[in-house]
Design brief:
Layout (H helix, E strand, L loop, with lengths): L5 E2 L6 E5 L5 H9 L4 E2 L22 H4 L5 E2 L3 E5 L9 H8 L4 E6 L2 H14 L7 H6 L1 H6 L3 H6 L8 H11 L5 E5 H6 L1 H12 L23 H22 L9
Parallel strand pairs: 2-5, 2-6, 3-5, 6-7
Antiparallel strand pairs: 1-4
Length: 253
């Protein structure tokens, strides 16, 4: 029986670069089911946001060793949501492969912040209640290590406009697939088809749905919390609408 020759990965074809708590785990699940796609041996490789790896000459084999040899017609990608947020990551990715494709999911930053806080509570890392954590975020981040600061950046990670500016400083729009989390959630089949088309792989006839609510919520967000967060994010939401041409009315009160 003939077996098509395999090749060792020497360049990734795409990266799911963010945003955290915006459906990246579900998208990883769906892409992993596609026979023309390989996503390596762990969900988040954290190569381009590891500052130690970029302190001197970069050894990309440390990235590629996560991927098995692949058949012709198979593409390879990484799913690490913090690449969108980590400031040096986009330039590092561009230096690695300026032709790489990026997939970026953006969620209502109010909902994203609450989901992020809830995840930290679930993991036992966050002693503060939601609004107190938001109010003290800036001062806490100043006193924290880089990794610890990322974990409590509930508001800062939702400031998408600056993150998108870094993306488009290095990559043309045609190499970037921007997806609204709410569209991915509500129109799953159509969104997946558009992603497969963007990556240049065949569409799948059927794929089992993935439950995206993996972490149980400690509680619901209160009306007052939502109002306070909207006051913080209103300008940011308007900038995203203007930058991307999106209708984000569902992100507003």
């Amino acid at each position: 029986m003939y077996r098509s020759p395999q090749r060792k990965i020497d360049k990734l074809d795409f990266i799911i670069a963010g945003a955290q708590k915006s459906g990246t785990t579900a998208l990883h699940y769906y892409l992993q089911k596609h026979p023309q796609i390989t996503l390596g041996d762990q969900q988040e490789i954290h190569f381009f946001d590891n500052d130690e790896l970029f302190a001197g000459p970069v050894d990309y084999e440390l990235l590629h060793r996560h991927f098995p040899p692949v058949k012709k017609g198979t593409i390879a990608g990484d799913c690490t949501p913090s690449y969108l947020y980590h400031q040096p990551a986009m330039e590092r990715i561009w230096n690695y492969n300026p032709h790489i494709k990026l997939i970026i999911l953006l969620r209502n930053p109010i909902e994203r912040a609450f989901a992020h806080w809830n995840m930290q509570r679930f993991k036992g890392r966050e002693p503060l209640d939601f609004l107190e954590a938001v109010q003290k975020e800036e001062s806490r981040m100043k006193d924290a290590t880089a990794l610890a600061a990322r974990r409590i950046a509930y508001v800062d990670r939702g400031k998408y406009s600056a993150q998108l500016e870094r993306v488009f400083k290095f990559f043309p729009r045609e190499q970037v697939k921007l997806i609204k989390f709410e569209e991915f959630r509500d129109n799953n089949r159509e969104t997946l088809d558009s992603i497969f088309a963007f990556l240049g792989v065949r569409l799948l006839r059927a794929i089992r749905s993935k439950d995206r609510n993996v972490v149980p919520y400690e509680r619901a967000m209160t009306i007052e919390e939502r109002k306070d967060l909207y006051a913080i994010f209103a300008g940011e939401i308007a900038r995203v609408e203007q930058r991307l041409g999106w209708d984000c009315s569902d992100w507003k009160l």
